[in-house]
């Protein structure tokens, strides 16, 4: 079930920046990645989980869930906590440092999370020799998550709470 951390937060995410990360050069509006987000729309998530090899029961629970992702930062440690009615998962990491992750469906992965600029968090996972990617892009009102597995791309939009 820790797969949901990767999928819902996955939080998925990259270069060190502060809680006051800003994209003022492009929008004039400061954007903080730190915050709480609730899933508001999802496209091809079931297909994404199928590409990961997630079992039928877990796929149906995950597809029906409306997760809340909380991203926090203390010093250089980031935490992504994903909560649903049936499971809560948490990962803690330093940007750019590989760590061992056990996903919600019990896959063991080597995961590295980095930043691309100040509003994009990138997660790269290698699980049983297969590579997966999760990109999170933040705006003042939402987090857009793109999840990649094989030829499937799922897009999940989370509104900022």
Descriptive notes:
This protein has 161 residues and is mainly β. Helices cover 15% and strands 48% of the residues. It has 3 helices and 10 strands; from the N terminus they run αβααβββββββββ. It has helices at residues 3-9, 45-52, 56-64; strands at 35-43, 68-74, 77-83, 88-94, 99-102, 108-116, 120-127, 130-138, 142-149, 152-160. It has a 10-stranded antiparallel beta sheet. Strand 9 (142-149) and strand 10 form a beta hairpin. Helix 2 runs antiparallel to helix 3. Belongs to the calycin superfamily. Fatty-acid binding protein (FABP) family. Keywords: Lipid-binding, Signal. InterPro entries: Calycin, Fatty_acid-bd, ILBP, Lipocln_cytosolic_FA-bd_dom.
Which tags fit this structure?
161 residues; mainly beta; Lipocalin; ten-stranded antiparallel sheet; globular; ILBP; lipid-binding; Calycin
Order of helices and strands: HEHHEEEEEEEEE
Helix content: 10-25%
Q: Provide the CATH topology.
A: Lipocalin
CATH architecture call: Beta Barrel
* Strand arrangement in the largest pleated sheet: 4-3-2-1-10-9-8-7-6-5
**What does the average pLDDT come to?**
84
Low-confidence stretches: 1-29
Rg calc: 14 Å
Give the helix tally. Answer: 3
CATH class: Mainly Beta
Summarize the structure.
15% of the residues lie in helices and 48% in strands. The protein has helices at residues 3-9, 45-52, 56-64; strands at 35-43, 68-74, 77-83, 88-94, 99-102, 108-116, 120-127, 130-138, 142-149, 152-160.
């Amino acid at each position: 079930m820790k797969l949901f951390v990767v999928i819902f937060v996955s939080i998925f995410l990259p270069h060190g920046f502060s809680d006051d990360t800003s994209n003022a050069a492009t929008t004039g509006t400061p954007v903080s990645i730190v915050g709480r987000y609730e899933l508001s729309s999802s496209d091809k998530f079931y297909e994404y989980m199928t590409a990961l090899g997630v079992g039928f029961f877990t796929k149906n629970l995950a597809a029906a869930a409306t997760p809340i992702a909380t991203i926090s930062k203390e010093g250089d440690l980031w935490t992504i906590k994903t909560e649903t009615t049936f499971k809560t998962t948490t990962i803690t990491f330093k940007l750019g440092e590989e760590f061992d992750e056990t996903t919600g469906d019990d896959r063991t992965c080597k995961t590295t999370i980095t930043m691309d600029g100040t509003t994009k968090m990138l997660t790269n996972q290698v699980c049983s020799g297969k590579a997966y990617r999760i990109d999170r892009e933040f705006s003042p009102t939402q987090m857009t998550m793109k999840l990649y597995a094989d030829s499937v791309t799922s897009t999940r939009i989370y509104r900022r709470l």
